């Protein structure tokens, strides 16, 4: 008799499992298929990215070799292909190298354009700031002090790694425009910067000395000097009395 009950219970259990599978089976199967497809898609994408990066790396080496051999046209062709077809990081490097070649050939406007384009495609802040700084450096001679400040300020925000060098360009532009107070302020800020390279600190000291030599004397300092001179001149007269 117990065997009969066991068989009935087994049949009922099977019917419940079948009902559950009919209700939820398609969803479970769909989820499993989605997971498998996702893993396969990620692996395909990862492999494609690896192949693309390897191809870009090889083309970058070819461009560097051509450039080193003086074959600028060949180097430019490789770099143009890299900029158009490669992953973002290689695209940025290709644009920056094109900018360097354009600058070497005296095409400053084109070099500035390429550096600016590289900044817009840069995958990280450091690369973007380097490209921006190079573009600013190329165009420095054609920009007013206010334009230099406008272009350099983003490099100074949040203490970027190129902040001291960007500050130097602001100081140099102020110095060229004979904006003595602005120049002094920028160079003094560099002199207090702990992350400024020694060479930059040396240039800053020279700039500050130049400012003190050529800048008009500030009113407060002039008044103080006059008072000291008057006091010094009046002292002997008082002794005579």
Question: How does this structure look, described?
Answer:
The N and C termini lie far apart (142 Å). 24% of the residues are buried. Helix 7 runs parallel beside helix 9. The chain has 10 helices and no strands. The radius of gyration is 35 Å and the shape is extended. It is an all-alpha fold.
Give the tags.
disordered C terminus; extended; mainly alpha; 241 residues; 10 helices
- The count of strands amounts to 0
Shape type:
extended
Number of helices: 10
Structural class: mainly alpha
How large is the share of residues in beta strands?
A: under 5%
N- to C-terminal separation? Answer: 142 Å
Average residue-wise pLDDT: 73
Q: What's the alpha carbon Rg, rounded to whole Å?
A: 35 Å
Percent range for helical residues? over 70%
Can you summarize the main beta sheet?
A: none
SSE order, one letter for each helix or strand: HHHHHHHHHH
Low-confidence stretches: 31-49, 222-226, 228-241
Secondary structure elements and their pairing?
Layout: H1 2-68, H2 72-85, H3 88-104, H4 108-121, H5 125-139, H6 145-156, H7 163-176, H8 180-192, H9 198-214, H10 219-240
């Amino acid at each position: 008799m117990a065997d009969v009950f066991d068989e009935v219970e087994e049949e009922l259990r099977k019917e419940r499992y079948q009902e559950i599978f009919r209700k939820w089976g398609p969803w479970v199967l769909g989820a499993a298929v989605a997971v498998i497809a996702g893993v396969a898609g990620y692996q395909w994408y990862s492999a494609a990215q690896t192949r693309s990066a390897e191809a870009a790396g090889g083309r970058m080496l070819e461009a560097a070799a051509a450039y080193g051999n003086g074959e600028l046209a060949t180097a430019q062709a490789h770099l143009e292909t890299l900029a158009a077809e490669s992953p973002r990081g290689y695209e940025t490097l290709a644009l920056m190298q094109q900018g360097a070649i354009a600058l070497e050939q005296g095409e400053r406007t084109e070099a500035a354009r390429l550096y600016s384009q590289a900044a817009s495609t840069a995958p990280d802040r450091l690369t973007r700031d380097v490209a921006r700084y190079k573009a600013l450096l190329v165009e420095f001679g054609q920009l007013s002090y206010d334009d230099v400040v406008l272009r350099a300020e983003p490099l100074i925000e949040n203490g970027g790694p190129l902040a001291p060098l960007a500050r130097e360009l602001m100081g140099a532009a102020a110095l060229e425009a004979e904006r003595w107070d602005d120049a002094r302020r920028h160079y003094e800020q560099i002199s207090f910067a702990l992350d400024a390279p020694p060479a930059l600190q040396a240039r800053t000291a020279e700039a500050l000395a130049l400012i003190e030599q050529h800048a008009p004397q500030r009113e407060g300092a002039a008044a103080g000097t006059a008072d000291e001179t008057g006091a010094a001149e009046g002292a002997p007269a008082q002794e005579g009395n």
